[in-house]
Write a structure and sequence with these properties.
Largest sheet: 7 strands, antiparallel
Strand content: 35-45%
Shape: elongated
Radius of gyration: 22 Å
Distance between the termini: 73 Å
Order of helices and strands: HHEEEEEEE
Number of domains: 1
Length: about 140
Amino acid sequence: MRYILIASLSTLLPLCAHAQERTPEPRDEFPFGRPYWASASDSADHSLFRQGLMWEGLTPSTDTTMTNYRQVWVESLHGGVTIIARGDGSVMPYRAEQVNNWFSVIRFRMADGRRGLTVSHETPCGLICRDTMYYVED
């Protein structure tokens, strides 16, 4: 019986064991692998959008006016798969001092000077389940 177990383990070992680490793939901004887009133009437009972002700190703003932001991109990370789609263009009114415990909000500036927000929501699950929406000032 012991010899049968050793023989079966020795035939299965090469399938899962490797002599060296696999070569890591170069990853710039997506730690969960290559993202999926609806079209090639979405891929190019999204990379240009991300290159033009200037992240602002989490300092509270003195802006007390209500500003309308329009949704431009949606990034969904679910179980190691990244799906990026254009936003639906919905409008979100937002005031700088407003606080929401359900979402995390990070401010940014576009290369053309417009303000923007990333709104992220994580769903509790065993894997990474995060939706991030990018909003740009109208």
